[in-house]
Write a structure and sequence with these properties.
This protein is α/β, with parallel strands linked by helices. Strand 1, helix 1 (about 25-30) and strand 2 (about 40) form a beta-alpha-beta unit. About 40% of the residues lie in helices and about 15% in strands. The protein has a domain at about 15-165 and about 200-230 and about 265-285: NAD(P)-binding Rossmann-like Domain (Rossmann fold). The strands form 4 sheets. It has a 6-stranded parallel beta sheet, sandwiched between helices. A two-stranded parallel ribbon has the order 6-9. A two-stranded parallel ribbon has the order 7-12. It is built from 10 helices and 12 strands. It is globular and about 55 Å long. Bound molecules: NADP nicotinamide-adenine-dinucleotide phosphate.
Length: about 300
């Protein structure tokens, strides 16, 4: 098991158990930790689909807050192996929430824009009714309810289209790096232009998570994504423009790229809860992307 990392101890230090610590969000949560004593748990340290072991680990560490970034989120695979999706995305979080409720810990859990069907065509707010189109979306929505039903103080954060310097271990990298690699290999690239979303830098999402905890916000749902919206094609164009890459890029329609999963054609996220609490929104995705490229060493400031 990984050790305990203590950075600058804040005045309101909480003992944090971080599940999924080697993932891209988990990595940035550790990087931005404002000083809480934090126990990072990788998939090798805990498997949240093993209820008995997970319960033992939670009780042994007795944290004030459990942050769960673990998920089964290879979306096409979820269609083929729904039982795996439900085990990791619903039953695992339900177990964590039950143990947290019994031990008095607060649970922070992450969900997805894929709980929506895309028909709204405007940024989805926390009060908008979900209607997932895929096994992944259904399992994550189930996980949200499982977490929220156990204790009102639990926080469920929906985010979207994550990119972080560690890359998603569950997805085998991230979209930004895939596009840069294709360009450097001289491969022309086709990217869908009819799927609109909110690209989000995990460093920004991590910082907002710590801000919510520091403010002791009420429990429930929060939509947290970088500001603005774009298609995957527009996102790629911006990556190439910032890096002055001249690789041919062709917009295509999602119908031209068949997949097992039905994806929402619009899944941008907006928040009505953050302004209610006086919390400023995250920067726009273009600024976040630029910061990411600098942090990753692709761009000089
Ligand atoms: N990535 C996105 O675009 C996106 C968009 C919206 C929402 N989200 C949500 O945001 C959260 C974080 O995503 P991320 O991109 O940071 O994911 P990630 O990089 O794949 O990290 C997840 C971590 O959890 C671990 N893990 C997987 N299954 C586990 C299990 N059963 N028990 C314990 N650990 C397990 C993974 O380890 P292994 O890799 O070794 O299995 C990985 O280190 C997830 O809840 C995801 O659903 C992600």
């Amino acid at each position: 098991m990984s050790g305990v990392s203590v950075l600058r101890r804040s005045s309101t230090a909480m003992k944090i158990l971080l599940i999924g610590s080697a993932g891209q969000l988990g990595t940035d949560l550790q990087k931005t930790n404002p000083g809480h004593p934090l126990v990072p748990l990788t998939h090798a340290d805990i498997d949240i689909t093993d209820a008995a072991e997970s319960e033992k680990i939670l009780r042994r560490h007795a944290p004030d807050v459990v942050i769960n970034t673990a998920a089964y989120h290879r979306t096409d695979d979820c269609e083929d192996f729904p039982e795996k999706a439900f085990a990791a995305n619903l039953l695992g979080p339900r177990l964590l929430a039950r143990v947290c409720a019994e031990t008095g810990a607060r649970l922070v859990h992450y969900s997805t824009d894929y709980v929506f069907d895309g028909k709204k065509r405007l940024p989805y707010r926390e009060s908008d009714p979900p209607f997932p189109l895929s096994v992944y979306g259904i399992s994550k929505l189930g996980g949200e309810f499982a977490v929220r039903s156990q204790a009102d103080r639990n926080i469920v954060i929906r985010s979207a289209s994550l990119f972080g310097t560690a890359g998603s271990s569950g997805k085998g990298g991230n979209f930004v790096e895939t596009m840069i690699r294709r360009s450097r290999e001289g491969l022309s690239t086709e990217v869908v232009d009819d799927m609109i979303m909110s690209p989000t830098y995990t460093l920004d999402l991590a910082q907002m998570t710590w801000a919510l905890l520091a403010k002791e916000v009420p429990g429930g749902l929060y939509h947290i994504a970088n500001g603005g919206t774009c298609s995957w094609y527009e996102f790629t164009r911006k990556i190439f423009a910032l890096l002055r890459l001249e690789t041919p890029l062709k917009p295509i329609r999602s119908a031209d790229r068949p997949a097992k999963i039905r994806r929402p054609l619009y899944s941008a996220l907006g928040s009505e809860r953050l302004p209610e609490l006086g919390i400023p929104p995250l920067r726009v995705w273009q600024e976040a992307l630029r910061a990411y490229l600098i942090e990753k060493g692709h761009l000089t400031p």
